[in-house]
Amino acid sequence: VVYDLIIHNGRIASASHVSDTSVWIGICGDKITTVQSGPTPIASARQVIDARGGYITPGGVDTHVHLQQLQVAPEDDTGDTFVSGTRSAIAGGTTTIVAFANQQRHDESLLPLVKEYHRRAGSGGTFTDYGFHMILTKPSKKILDEELPHLVQNEGITSIKASRVYMTYEARRVNDRDMLEIMLRTRKLGMTLMVHAENDDMVQLVIDHLRENELTEPAHHALARTPLAEAEATNRAICLSNLVSAPILIVHVSSATSMARIRHAQDELQPIFAETCPQYLLMLANAMSPGHSHGGCGCGGAPPSDPESLPLAPSNFSEGADASTVQGRYEGAKMVCSPPLREDRSDLDAVWKGLANGTVTTFSSDHCPSRYNHPKGKKKGLVGCEADFTKIPNGLPGVETRLPLLMTYGVEAGRISIQRFVQVCCTQPAQLYGLQHRKGEISPGMDADIVVWYPEGEIDEVVTNEKLHHDIDYTPFEGTRVTNWPRYTVLRGKVAYDREGQGVLGVKGEYVHRVKGTMGHEKRTETHLERISRFGEAKRLVGTRS
Ligand code: URP
Ligand code: ZN
Ligand code: ZN
Ligand code: ZN
Question: What's the distance, CA 250 to chain centroid?
């Protein structure tokens, strides 16, 4: 056999195992064909990568990425395109993304939307493979009963985000009945249902009260969206799911109470899954205020110098940002996302615990960026000297920093194992979202999507925005120390990122036709509705006999 690429001399990490350095990977074309120990047949390889004792992991799968979403006028879109977003992803070790295709209230059909998103992703090309989730805001009968089965069978779209099935963002939220109708269909079709769980009425009440008290600066965003609003919506989503036995995934879990509620449901063998994101592990709400005093954050007064301490308050304010001016404080808008950064260290600790103990199923970026210095980006909430955090576009960039940050503060700092890292960043997101036939694992027959990391101890640097490949003018993790970074990212057998060579290479990503995910659909318990049907059936039978 002649291999197009051989990767050897590293420690191959899977969801369950780490190999020793004698195991090598042989790749032909797009696929991994061989994973074997023993002497590497270097002579029969067209190209060889020497991993020098570093980890070799599957390519990252980031299933929560917002790119070129149809929700704003095109000229208002100051985020990443499919080109810049996937360029950033590949440089951070992510080889597959799933982006959102959102229904707007006036859209009667999802099918033209899917076409439009294909056009958007296809027009400039992508550096990673990609798929789409649908965001539902107005689930008509036609959409539920005709279009969803079509999307699953013909378009390879096997997941939905809803509370758009949001329980939040007034224009996008769906009511409980709609949520239940969606759950019945996703259960039947084997689709994955993502739920954004924040109770919007609870949020809006607090916002009104903050306004009355003239507390409308970016830092107050964290006060508006309480852990209680997240807990209420999480609990409600779990109860709704319970009624119809539908698997759901609670996205971007940020607080202790929600994590505990999810854990409890899992202990009861309910098909409830959880996602979290780097921002909820690494920053607290005080990162939204300049001149952070390192008082209550537990970091000990100085930016931590060893990766076992968490960054908590990165230097994401510009130098000389003046805490005594609205403009200085307004830079906190860079960290405005929903759910917000939490005030209490106990929430952050609970997210770490959930990540380590298996409650968290998947780790995503929720890359949803807006430029800071742009009147239609983050600056939208600043008019003259008046700040209004409710006008700030929500979301952070992070598709490139996701894996290096978890490798640093999770694996190398000893909080999670490398196997756990692979589970939540690669294997489980692939299984949740119907990518398991091609992605998330290093084994023969799978796509050759691979990340080669540096040997531990070789990298010690800080994240700066100049080093990143997105099209955004800041990173929330500016100044944050990292102790590893992908040295090579391989996409379907081709080196797509070479950190010490040419950086990002012009490899073309492809649309991935997803199949049904395998998590949560294993065991179909009878739903309450099915039980009632059974009673009805029995009653009818008795009726025909008499
Ligand atoms: O703040 C965030 N996360 N915005 C993105 C949209 C969402 O809710 O995921
Ligand atoms: Zn969300
Ligand atoms: Zn501090
Ligand atoms: Zn999101």
Answer: 11
At residue 57, the 3 state secondary structure works out as: strand
What does the pLDDT read at residue 319? 75
Tell me what pLDDT residue 298 has.
46
Which residue's CA is the closest to the ligand 1 atom numbered 4? 395
Residue 446 DSSP one-character state? S
Ligand 1: atom nearest CA of 66 is 5
Query: How, if at all, do strands 55-58 and 494-498 pair?
Result: unpaired
Q: Is the CB of 200 under 6 A from ligand 1?
A: no
In total, the chain counts a number of residues equal to: 546
What separation in Å is there between the alpha carbon of 502 and the centre of ligand 4?
31
Helix ranges, 358-472 (H): 402-406, 418-422, 428-432
**What pLDDT, on a 0 to 100 scale, did the predictor assign at position 295?**
40
Kindly list the protein residues that place their beta carbon closer than 5 angstroms to ligand 4, a single-atom ion.
Answer: 366, 368
In the prediction, which pLDDT does 523 show? 66
Asked if residue 368 has its Cβ within 6 Å of ligand 1, the reply is yes
- Report the residue among 394, 399, 472 best suited for mutation to probe ligand 1: largest number of ligand atoms under 8 A from its CB: 394
For residue 539, the model assigns a pLDDT of 93
Pick out the chain residues at pLDDT < 50. 164-167, 293-305
Q: Answer whether 0.90 is exceeded by the pTM.
A: yes
- Integer Cα distance of 217 and 336 in angstroms: 11
pLDDT at position 364 is: 98
**Which residue is associated with the tokens 């999802």?**
110
pLDDT of residue 381: 94
Dihedral over alpha carbons 347, 351, 352, 356 (to 10 degrees) = 140
163 C-beta closer than 6 A to ligand 1:
no
Other beta carbons within 10 Å of 245:
20
